[in-house]
Design a protein that fits this description.
single chain; TIM Barrel; nine-stranded parallel β-sheet; two-stranded antiparallel ribbon; 15 strands; 15% strand; globular; binds flavin mononucleotide
Length: 368
């Protein structure tokens, strides 16, 4: 596949995103790569992997857990809740900055998607409703257990975990953090009707189901400054067995509550032709980052149009960056894009991680 962006393309123009100036409007979407060390410390290769992709307007890191109980949906996913984690993330942030890039850390708590054989602790969720799915544990594929419903008094400590992890991210040198409220993980589980059957202040009405995500955003913004905070949502996304009877109501409540904060950005994973996209766009006056989640040749064409029209501030691209460290250069010249190798998405080691060739690599004979 090829696509050429003209020199004056909207996607190639700089943009001020809260406190961060991005050189272009093509951000790297968060991508779990399962290469972290078993204690959640990023891999020795992580600095090289991210620095290779530093020409993204902003790199959004792979989802990074705020606590041990918030990790454990997949093996070898990183955290940012110990000094050791933070030290390794500081090396990553330095390497990206040295290469001229900008980086936000995506923060998650996986809730009911965790398996105790991976996390080492009991799984928790808004309500005791299991995901009808399996996890790839170290001893094989196992069904996800019924999680324990979190008590009301356990929610403030989870907000505190996000706040502390965000502080560590900024202390490690990250330009900001993205709160992960998408794709079926804990904050999305609170939003969803299927996983949230609570009768306290965190269940029932849209405002109540949005409450935990809003409290996390507010606490993190108070800690590191709203201009360093992004939020990712995926209205209507059924990942992780999610379902929202009213796909917009809970996000309307969430955005109404946090809109005055003047955050860095709202990152929406949605097909822009979905009716929900128009509603979300109308609700959000700040910078909107769109990830279309589409795998078609027209993807960049569509994103460029939306950027030109001012509908989106920036686009986030996942697999394109995974397979093309020099994606921006390739789009500038209209070069053929490397195809992502699905078999190595979550495989250990450098293959399919740090060895995707750049255009410059392809021009050099191997013996040179
Ligand atoms: C290997 C892989 C890992 C992913 N990990 C994450 C993640 O950690 N956090 C997240 O919010 N989305 C994650 N996603 C979703 C991507 O951010 C993105 O929404 C999806 O790949 C669609 O965009 P694309 O077509 O540009 O790749 C992942 C997707 C892939 C393919």
């Amino acid at each position: 596949m090829t696509f050429k962006l003209d020199g004056d393309a909207a996607l190639l123009k700089p943009i001020q995103v809260g406190a961060t100036t991005a050189e272009n409007r093509i951000f790297m979407a968060p991508l779990t790569r399962s290469r972290a060390q078993s204690d959640g410390t990023p891999s020795e290769l992580a600095a090289q992997y991210y620095a290779q992709r530093a020409s993204a307007g902003i790199i959004i890191s792979e989802a990074t857990a705020v606590s041990q109980g918030g990790n454990g949906a997949y093996v070898n996913t990183p955290g940012n809740y110990t000094d050791r984690h933070q030290e390794k993330w500081a090396e990553v942030a330095d390497a990206v900055h040295d290469a001229g890039g900008r980086m936000f850390m995506q923060l998650w708590h996986v809730g009911r998607m965790a398996h105790p054989e991976i996390s080492g602790v009991e799984s928790v969720a808004p309500s005791a409703v299991a995901a009808d799915m399996s996890a790839h544990t170290p001893t094989g594929k196992k069904p996800l257990p019924v999680p324990r419903a979190l008590g009301t008094t356990e929610l403030a400590p989870i907000v505190e975990q996000f706040r502390a992890a965000a502080r560590r991210a900024v202390d490690a040198g990250m330009d900001g953090v993205e709160i992960h409220a998408a794709n079926g993980y804990l904050l999305h589980q609170f939003a969803s009707d299927v996983t949230n059957r609570r009768t306290d202040a965190y269940g029932g009405s849209p405002e109540n189901r949005a409450r935990l995500a809003a409290e996390v955003v507010e606490a993190v913004a108070a800690e590191i400054g709203a201009g360093r905070v992004g939020l990712r949502i995926s209205p209507g996304n059924t990942a992780g067995g999610m379902a929202e009877v009213d796909t917009v109501g809970v996000y309307e409540a969430l955005l109404n509550r946090i809109s005055a904060l003047d955050m860095a950005y709202l990152h929406v994973l949605i097909d822009p032709s979905a009716p929900e996209f128009g509603t979300i766009r109308a609700l959000w006056s700040g910078t909107l980052v769109l990830n279309t989640g589409r795998n078609v040749d027209t993807k960049f064409c569509q994103l460029e149009e939306l950027a030109e029209w001012g509908v989106i501030g920036a686009a986030a691209v996942g697999r394109g960056f995974l397979a093309n460290p020099d994606l921006i250069d390739r789009l500038r010249v209209g070069a053929e894009l490397n195809e992502p190798d699905v078999a190595t998405f979550y495989a250990p080691g450098p293959v399919g991680y740090t060895d995707y060739p750049t255009l410059a690599d392809l021009r050099q004979p191997e013996s040179a």
